[in-house]
Design brief:
Elements lengths: L1 H8 L3 H9 L2 H12 L2 H17 L10 H19 L8 H4 L48 H7 L4 H13 L3 H7 L4 H18 L13 H16 L2 H5 L2 E9 L2 E6 L1 H12 L7 E8 L2 E9 L6 E12 L2 E8 L4 H4 L10
Parallel strand pairs: 1-6
Antiparallel strand pairs: 1-2, 3-4, 4-5, 5-6
Length: 339
């Protein structure tokens, strides 16, 4: 690494690439947490690396390379937010009141909706990552509920919270990263933490780790009942207060009765069309690529990426991201295998 740093100072692009590749994935995840969009995070990461290359003469080694890159990435994201007048991306649960069952109205393509993040793109902990003093473990802070919550923070509060409690920078490093005083950064951090505490009084959401046999069985039955169009069987898998949403549609439903009524309305109109789910993982949770066939079964169309949260009482939330452009980022096939 030392020789690569020397090559970087000499303007050697190969040396730069060696250094940067060690941090690329965690920088992209940071951009995703800031922006709430997989596609925007990919763009911001590329912009960050380009800015880092152009500013390489300014890296004097007093801060770690990781800290320097996070500083550039954070400001790249803040500029993107300001440029697009986009405070944060949202889920329907943050925009509209819950709905009793009714057929879907028009999709809302004007609201900037949150996007999922593929687990396959999450980084391994880097060699110089901070220890357990950071409040949230890196993979826990990718949970969908956490990402949705911090998107509602003012952008600078979001940046400070992430740099301190997720990335693990010091107060001084965080303040320097966004050109503010330590006192101002600490004040913003306390406000951000207080907002999250109101949202998560028992602490931020955590993952269940590896699925136990009961969890695996639950997901197997999820797939079976979904593909069979078995509304009653599917509803039995839900927790009593389960939440269903499907951006870009603003409607979202809570509870077995309303979710069951909605799926009954959807599935009665299948008209011979088959549906398949292909296993993937997103935001530290089980997920599926959801495909629909044509009426004759001859062709298949990617339809949505479903993120499924499990709890002790069954499935607690299903978020359907209806965006076929996500499939390539999740490395999902264009058609379900075996179909």
């Amino acid at each position: 690494m030392t020789s690569a740093l020397a090559r970087l100072r000499d303007g050697d692009r190969e040396g730069f690439d060696i250094l940067i590749e060690h941090h690329r994935r965690e920088i992209q995840v940071h951009c995703y947490r800031m922006l709430g969009s997989l596609h925007d995070a990919e763009d911001a990461t590329q912009d960050t690396l380009l800015r880092a290359w152009r500013a390489r003469d300014g890296f004097d080694g007093r801060a770690s390379l990781r800290t320097w890159l996070y500083r550039i990435a954070t400001n790249t994201c803040l500029r993107a937010i300001e440029r697009r007048a986009l405070r944060g991306r949202l889920l329907p649960t943050a925009v509209h009141p819950r709905a009793s069952f009714r057929p879907l109205g028009a999709a809302d393509h004007e609201t900037p909706w949150l996007e999922p993040y593929p687990d396959a793109a999450l980084p391994e902990p880097p060699d110089d990552a901070p220890g357990p003093d950071a409040r949230y473990e890196a993979h826990e802070s990718i949970r969908l509920a956490f990402i949705a919550a911090i998107q509602e923070l003012p952008p600078r509060q979001r940046a400070i919270l992430l740099l301190r409690d997720v990335v693990g920078l010091t107060a001084e490093e965080t303040a320097a990263s966004i050109a503010t005083s330590v006192a101002a950064a600490n004040s913003a951090l306390q406000r951000a933490r207080a907002t999250l505490h109101r949202r998560f009084p028992d602490g931020p959401p955590t993952g269940s780790g590896e699925l136990d046999p009961a969890g695996r069985d639950l997901l197997e039955r999820y797939v079976q009942t979904w593909e069979a169009g078995d509304v009653e069987g599917f509803v039995r898998l839900l927790a009593p207060d389960a939440v269903w949403s499907m951006p870009p549609w603003p409607e979202w439903f809570v509870g077995r009765a309303d979710i069951g009524a909605f799926l009954g309305w959807v599935w009665v109109n299948r008209r011979g069309r088959a549906e398949r789910l292909v296993v993937t993982a997103a935001n530290g949770a089980p997920a599926f690529g959801y495909y629909r066939s044509s009426a004759d079964g001859a062709t298949w169309q990617p339809f949505a990426v479903q993120v499924v949260e499990l709890g002790s009482g069954g499935i607690v939330s299903i978020t359907n991201f209806v965006d076929e452009t996500l499939f390539s980022s999740f490395e999902l096939p264009p058609t379900p295998r075996g179909s």
